[in-house]
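wait is this the right file?? whatever heres the structure
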């Protein structure tokens, strides 16, 4: 019998991998800490958690840090597809260093054209903390986004009933009160606001003094004008989590969060992570018990809504230079 020729696998050149990492670092992260490092050696790309950027008071177990790294991993996979490449990801290698979260091989068998709209989507996505309009996101859209999240091995649930939404709002306020009386947490959070440099949250991206009927925010007032009064907001919440509350689950939830965020952005929606009720363990357990049905271990809550038509776009939060987060060995 004639021998079948195996298709040749083309490994991505180092220059392509470097560009992918640059796009991956556009991912959202807790307080814009950008807690990731990438190492490229002999066609193997390694994602590591930058443990020096963990928030010991707010995030002692590293859940938010790992979620952030999972979002960066998904951004890299999304960017690779948009540029015509495939990714093969090994999560949590068995012989890994504790900081190593994933290994990625970027390759392809057949050349494919780049999808420019997807590359633009990565650059368009941002965190807009201004209030949503009163126009609610339809339930079918929310369920579609939940299905997007579940493709990454997570469980996702939309909070749609009035009773569940009211209960979640009460629990979120309880968590905020707990955080506000914890001096260590508040001091740590302040250290990431209005920093000089290439990380943290600029005051220009935090809404100014809230009006009486505006929902409470974990951050102090900033400089972003947000004067439109909305009495009944149309935002909805999606919970993402899984069956366990561990590093593997957090990484998958971070990938799912990124996937949902990009799809919401593509559809013209806006998204804000709501991690406060998850950061307070007693509140997190109560959210799972009394609000959710299908997510026994919630890892992140996402507020989703529509921004007002005609609002100006926001500048991007700063990003660390590539040489600080990417090491390329010869």
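ok assuming it is, sequence goes like this
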């Amino acid at each position: 019998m004639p021998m079948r020729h195996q298709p040749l696998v083309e490994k991505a050149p180092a220059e392509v991998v470097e560009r992918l990492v640059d796009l991956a670092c556009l991912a959202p992260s807790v307080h814009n800490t950008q807690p990731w490092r990438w190492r490229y050696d002999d066609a193997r790309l390694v994602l590591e958690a930058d443990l020096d950027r963990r928030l010991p008071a707010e995030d002692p177990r590293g859940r938010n840090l790992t979620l952030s790294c999972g979002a960066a991993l998904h951004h890299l996979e999304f960017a690779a597809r948009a540029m015509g490449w495939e990714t093969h990801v090994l999560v949590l290698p068995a012989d890994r260093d504790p900081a190593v979260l994933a290994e990625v091989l970027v390759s392809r068998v057949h050349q494919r054209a780049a999808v420019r709209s997807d590359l633009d989507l990565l650059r368009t996505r941002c965190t807009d903390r201004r209030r949503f309009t009163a126009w609610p996101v339809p339930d079918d859209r929310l369920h579609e986004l939940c299905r997007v999240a579940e493709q990454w091995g997570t469980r996702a649930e939309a909070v749609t009933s009035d009773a569940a939404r009211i209960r979640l709002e009460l629990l979120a306020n309880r968590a905020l009160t707990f955080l506000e009386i914890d001096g260590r947490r508040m001091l740590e959070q302040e250290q990431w606001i209005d920093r000089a440099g290439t990380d943290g949250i600029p005051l220009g991206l935090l809404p100014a003094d809230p009006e009486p009927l505006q929902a409470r925010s974990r951050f102090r007032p900033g400089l972003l004008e947000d004067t439109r009064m909305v009495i009944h907001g149309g935002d909805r919440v999606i919970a993402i989590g899984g069956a366990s509350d561990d590093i593997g689950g957090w990484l998958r939830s971070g990938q799912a969060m990124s996937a949902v965020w990009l799809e919401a952005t593509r559809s013209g929606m806006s998204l804000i992570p709501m991690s406060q009720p998850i950061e307070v363990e007693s509140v997190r357990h109560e959210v799972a018990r009394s609000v959710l049905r299908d997510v026994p271990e919630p890892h992140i809550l996402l507020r989703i809504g529509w921004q007002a038509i005609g609002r100006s776009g926001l500048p991007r939060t700063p990003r660390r230079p590539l040489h600080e987060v990417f090491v390329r060995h010869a």
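The first helix runs from residue 14 to 24. so i think its the right one actually
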